[in-house]
Design goal:
Blueprint lengths: L6 E15 L5 E15 L2 E14 H10 L5 E14 L5 E14 L3 H14 L3
Parallel strand pairs: 3-5
Antiparallel strand pairs: 1-2, 1-4, 2-3, 4-5
């Protein structure tokens, strides 16, 4: 049986994308997405911030590096990957990341509400 490895997230860009190139010259961008989950603790719901790194390749990486900034809302569709590496301190580490197949830039809710409020103020009664 084949495994399913699909990740779909919406959240805010937590830091501006970092752009680099592979040895072959391909564009790679890394960005960190922030999203919240809710957990019931001691009978009360509490929100918890979560962060995950997302990697984009090719034209999508170049577009993200050019247009995405911290705070922008995005929807990411991709797959989860795990890797292990040894740090400079010779300690083995493990990281998870999402390799994006598709990233959609979502409308900025703050800009939409400001535009809507401005339009309502300008509308004569």
């Amino acid at each position: 049986m084949r495994n399913i490895n699909r990740v779909v997230l919406t959240g805010g860009v937590a830091q501006d994308p970092e752009m680099r190139r592979t040895r072959a010259g391909a564009a790679v961008a890394t960005l960190r997405i922030a999203f919240t989950t809710q957990q019931k603790l001691d009978g009360a719901w509490q929100e918890r911030s979560n962060y995950i790194d997302v990697e984009l390749f090719g034209a999508q990486a170049e577009s993200a590096a050019r247009y995405l900034k911290r705070g922008r809302q995005v929807a990411v569709d991709g797959r989860l990957e795990w890797r292990e590496y040894e740090g400079r301190d010779h300690v083995r580490r493990q990281v998870h990341r999402v390799v994006a197949d598709n990233v959609q830039y979502l409308p900025d809710a703050r800009a939409t509400s400001v535009t809507r409020a401005t339009a309502e103020e300008a509308t004569p009664e």
